[in-house]
Amino acid sequence: MEKVFEALASTPRRKILAYLSETELSAGDIAARFEMTKPSLSKHLRILESAGLIASDKRGQFVFYRLQGDNLANTLASFMQAVCPVSKALKKESKALATQKKLETK
Predict the structure, then answer these.
(1) pTM for this predicted structure
(2) Which residues belong to any copy of the HTH arsR-type domain (predicted)?
């Protein structure tokens, strides 16, 4: 549980979780939403994955990230996102991305 709290203590990591709340994203898609170096983003993603909050899936040359479903840590993260004003806009963007992906696959 200590890893979960360490992961949630960082604003960029909470934002990543908000972006992944409705859809999976590639590492590049996530990076495009932040002004940080790729090594810094990779470190944040590793911490989130180590805490069991996200999972990764390599497809060809791309790595896709998604929330790790149905665990206490993500329930806690969802609660924090619900009360965090910054996360609301990010979750809305995540939902729009999910809708766009569904339309593209039809």
Answers:
(1) 0.72
(2) 1-87
